[in-house]
Amino acid sequence: MDMTVLSKQTSKRLALRKGRDILKPLPDPNKYNEKVNLNQLVKDQVGEIAYAYLSQYVDFEQESTFVEATATRFNLLKISPGKYKTIVNLKRVNDIRWINKFFETVNSKLNNGNLFIGFVETKNNRKARILKRHFFPFNWLRYSADFVLHRVMPKIKFTKKIYFSITKGHNRVLTKAETLGRLVSCGFEIKDVKEIGKLTWFVTEKIKEPVFDPNPSYGPFFKMRRVGKDGKIIRVYKLRTMHPFSEYLQGYMVKTHGYDNEGKGKIKNDFRNTTLGAFFRRYWIDELPQLINILKGEMKLVGVRPLSITRFNEFPDNVKKRRTKYKPGCFPPYVALLMPNEEDNIKAEEIYLDQKEKHPVWTDVKFFWLSIYNIVTNKIRSA
Predict the structure, then answer these.
(1) Element (H or E) spanning 88, and its range?
(2) Distance of CA 143 to CAs 131, 137, 181, 343, Å?
(3) Does residue 186 sit within a domain?
(4) Looking at the DSSP assignment, which residues form a beta bridge with residue 210?
(5) What pLDDT is attached to residue 9?
(6) What is the total count of domains within the chain?
(7) Close Cβ partners of 150 (under 8 Å, ≥ 6 residues apart)
(8) Do 106 and 132 belong together in one domain?
(9) Is there a single domain that holds both residue 230 and residue 353?
(10) Are 371 and 303 in contact (CB under 8 A)?
(11) By CB neighbour count within 10 A (0-12 exposed, 13-18 middle, 19+ buried), where does 292 fall?
């Protein structure tokens, strides 16, 4: 399709459905000639500021650019793979019923190094919009009802089908973490994220094929991919303390945010954490499901921390070799030794491994009771 020529029908397709989006509707397409300036059309659609931002990454008049405003895969499926270098969707992610399927389809139409650009109304964007629109206390009642309907119901097994049968997936509440995590799981690297007005825009680059995870973490319980004994990948059970799909953002968060400066070895300004998750972590409630891993023989009460692949690869080779000789534990060494800092965490494991090799049983007993004491006295919280 020549993107320098848009028919009136295509112009109408770019106009967003009334009430579904925050973007201002396009002017009457009848005012455009058959040969329409796509740059002007997009500018009218997204506004001056968003247009200036997008123009840093894409030339809308290039034939290698595909611009659409759709919540379905229908028009995308008709595209020949590799035909376009950039795909831009001017429909919010919130209105897409099968989000991962949509992202996977976009991935299949691009080559590695090509761009996919879109936007989402995040949970925080939505909250600010609703609270500003109504006056107290009706604004909070409205927000609470909206959150339950469009955020909670889609995540509960017994209400999920009812919700999607009624809404068809439109107007769902999505967090920034979930949206970016879904993109990464579908083979995209996050190049840039920008909040403009009431919307959050993302620019991504295809770097690989989608993961096609048949069991993504979405409910209150989830399983984390962690490095176990002998380097085997195990699924560690945990109560959710982060937004869905956050596990796919570990590398991105380390790269863009880094670790905090408070000696806790945690990601700085980690927007993946939930409010309830902070309470769970403070009292180690989120770790209780790991008892399942103990029963399965994959973990034990005391041992090296079950690390993500990204974090595991940050350890020195000699430490990686030593730690994979044992099962990981629910209470890692840094809890007993109060050494959660990024570098001290490694030292804590080395101290534990040195003592473990000399006194296997006594070391675990000592580290267990030290860990319990530090948790009860609130000297440390869950990772």
Answers:
(1) strand 86-89
(2) 7, 10, 25, 43
(3) yes
(4) none
(5) 44
(6) 3
(7) 167, 171, 172, 173
(8) no
(9) yes
(10) no
(11) middle
- Please name the residues in contact with 380: beta carbons below 8 A apart, sequence gap of 6 or more: 334, 335, 338, 340, 374
Q: Please, what's the largest Cα pairwise distance for the chain?
A: 83
Residue 320 near residue 312, CB atoms below 8 Å? yes
Strands 86-89 and 65-68: parallel
Per-residue pLDDT at 1: 39
What CATH number should be reported for the domain holding residue 60? 3.40.50
Q: What are the E-state strand segments in 150-309?
A: 188-196, 199-206, 221-227, 233-239, 300-302
Q: Structure tokens of 270?
A: 């980690």
* Residues 290 and 238 sit within 8 Å (Cβ to Cβ): yes
SS3 222: strand
| pLDDT tens digits for range 72-92 | 999 899 899 999 999 999 999
Q: Percentages helix, strand, coil for the chain, rounded to the nearest 5?
A: 45, 15, 40
Six-digit token string for 274: 């939930």
Question: What residue ranges of the chain have pLDDT lower than 70?
Answer: 1-36, 214-219, 260-265, 381-383
The answer to whether residues 130 and 203 touch, using CB atoms and an 8 Å cutoff, is: no
Let me know how long the chain is: 383
Q: In angstroms, how far is CA 76 from the centroid of its own chain?
A: 23
Query: Which two tokens mark 146?
Result: 């909206």
Find all residues with CB under 8 Å of 172, minimum gap 6, and list them.
Answer: 94, 95, 150, 151, 154
| 162 and 89 together in one domain | no
Residues 349, 311 share a domain: yes
User: In the numeric block, which tokens belong to residue 209?
Assistant: 């094929």
DSSP state of 80: P
* Domain limits for position 130: 123-167
337 and 367 part of one domain? yes
